[in-house]
Write a structure and sequence with these properties.
Blueprint: H1 11-21, H2 31-45, E1 50-51, H3 63-74, H4 88-102, E2 111-114, H5 116-128, E3 137-142, H6 146-155, E4 158-163, H7 171-180, E5 185-191, H8 203-216, E6 219-224, E7 254-259, E8 272-276, H9 278-281, H10 297-309, H11 315-329, H12 341-354, E9 359-360, E10 364-365, E11 368-369, E12 375-379, H13 385-393, E13 397-398, E14 400-401, E15 413-416, H14 425-438
Parallel strand pairs: 1-13, 3-4, 3-5, 5-6, 6-7
Antiparallel strand pairs: 2-8, 7-8, 9-12, 10-11, 12-15, 14-15
Helix pairs in contact: 1-2, 3-11, 4-11, 5-6, 5-10, 7-8, 12-14
Amino acid sequence: MDRKIVTPIDAEVVSRKIMASGLNDMGQASIREIVRLAFDIEAETGDSFIHMEMGVPGLPAPEIGINAQIDALKKGVASKYAMIDGLPALKNETSRFVKLFLDIDVKPESCLPTVGSMQGGFATFLVANRNNHLRKGTLFIDPGFPVQKMQCTVMGHEYETFDVYNHRGPKLREKLESYLKTGQISSIMYSNPNNPTWICLTDEELKIIGDLSKKYDVTIIEDLAYFGMDFRHDYSQPGKPPYQPTVAHYTDNYVLLLSTSKAFSYAGERLGMLIVSDTLFNRRYPDLLRYYTSDKFGHALIYGALYTLTSGTSHSSQYAVAAMLKAVNDGVYNFVEGVKEYGVRAEIMKKTFTDNGFQIVYDKDADHPLADGFYFTFSYPGFTGGELVEELLYYGISAISLEITGSEHSEGLRACVSQFQLDKEPVLAERLRRFHEDHPV
């Protein structure tokens, strides 16, 4: 681009920091690499960025959890190892939670704390992708969270992927079956609501996934990091429909990843919950004995995968999450109301982008308007994804390319709304106006 243009952020500094970063292709840069680069530019220029690259909760953590964790620390739990399979109170409240908000029955023993959903996914891959030596790995229903594919790569697991956008509704069956009939797929993974597009799979589509998981004996890994955050529906009332949609209504061959980072704004304590169906938890796979001391899925998951990864999670944070879940289960705390702010931010941000020549990439949720939530996607005419990531840095805006998410729309970027404060809207509007003026369509 023409660097003679005077940009909001000192162009010489931005160019020098990009060069020093060693990032040759911004379209392939990871979330953390873009974060580091943006912070380095901020540190030298003193100019604040509009950070949209990382899903950092932008709301305060609930006092219920904080107080419970402080109380646990004062009682001395910091000096004691927690059991690998979790605090009984946390396991019980998690079991209650999935009954009240998903309408599924899972015993407490099948609910396991993990160091965030990231570890939950990693541990599940270690078991689900090793239960049959004739199979190779995971099928990702994309776009998706890029680090989950990285996890498979560092484990040496193969994976397949496809962009679901053009395969919604009944068309999903044919697309999935084209992969499953090869006999090579051990597990299927997706997020719902989806990171990065914010599309939400329907009950019809989840039934298709569940039916095929039974037909081809494939484990479904459902990432519910943004639980209840499709604000078009009210999923906040314990024990009352509508319930958060889940594949668990259509198959017993599932693992659910629950995160406290987004819905509960408790990201800093790194604790999530791994929910395994009771049937899968107790199922035996002889091939697991190649790696673990037991062929039982649940035992291998706890005393094989989780034990070797971290030997459990933070002790005090389990008390915090148990207290928050109990408050939610008892109807004392409405966790969905606490995060609706993200939908407000998304609506405002999307309008600010489209008012300045940008386009929303994933603009429909099947045949319905896309919800406003934690993420949205955008592009600008004439730019590839990598070019747009780089050029926006000169305007004090940081985001990641859809190239690393498995999207077919390599020209697009993902925007996370969580760090955007509404009082920064004039700043965003001015920077986008300048960008549009400097890059006429």
